[in-house]
Amino acid sequence: MKKPILVTTGEPAGIGPDICIMVAKHMDNLVFVGDVSVLKARAKLIGETLEFLDYEPNCLVKAGQMMVYDIPCQDTVIPGTLNPKNAKAVLEMLEWSCLKVLQGEFSALVTAPVNKAQVQHADSNFLGHTEYFQKLCQSPQVVMMLSDEHFRVALITTHIPLKDVANTITQERIISVVQTIYHGLEKDWGLKNPKIAIAGLNPHAGEDGALGLEEIEVITPAVEILKQQGIDIHGPLSADTMFLHQDYDVFVAMYHDQGLSVLKYATFGKAANISLGLPIIRTSVDHGTALHLAGTHLAKPESMMTAIKMAKMIASHRGA
Questions:
Q1: Mean pLDDT per 10-residue run, the chain (320 residues)?
Q2: Domains and CATH numbers, the chain
Q3: Which end of the chain is more exposed for a tag (fewer CB within 10 A), N or C?
């Protein structure tokens, strides 16, 4: 029997429980982590019928069953209303899940969305799943990449203020991030010598220094070093036209909104978030907690289903 995929149910007041319930109806070999009483109440609220099972290792789970490792919330959960008292349970969910996948009990980890500000009530340093798992796994470099079946966008910087981006982008960081992307696409996607496009930081990629010097002083030298290592990389390219070219395996953006605004416009609700560089396989949805949709049966599970399918695909390439 293949090892199951572990799925966190995310912020309990958001749509994480809803979409997890929906995918459990149609997909097998999944184990979920969260408050089982919240999941049962949410299933009733949205009119879904499931067989709930307590977590047992090495147990086959069929579609229509929801096996749950129970981590109770500290206080009442009201769909659509954040409760800071439940932040500790969310953080415990993430830590338990990451460590269990690290220990090899599961083949991959898929995460439902959390609210970063909410989790900070339990950990003031929490910036997001990617950074949190990087610390737990003690990984030197982790890269956030979002992808559907064909369109991939990876980031040099992730969840930092825009005013800090230019100072965070260094030659060393670009080289390390692109190497991680390159090896991740080879290992996890089976792409041989993937073709990489990298954006400039400034409008029109700096326009020969007229609009900024980062392209000349930082990005281009890093690209030349990567080319010398045999990596098929092109740029820095102007970000306003880079995504029009369809012959690249991945587009690398300098900062969060430069890349993800384009990808989400093109694929929102159908893509997945992948953490490259972790020793574990971790994917996630491409959306947030959508508090206003919690408990309404209007949430869409497609991105969660994509994240699970992608985790299975990566696990098959790794032989997990």
A1: 92 98 97 98 97 93 97 97 97 97 96 96 93 94 91 94 96 97 94 97 93 96 98 97 94 96 89 95 96 96 96 87
A2: 1-139+278-320 (3.40.718.10), 141-277 (3.40.718.10)
A3: N
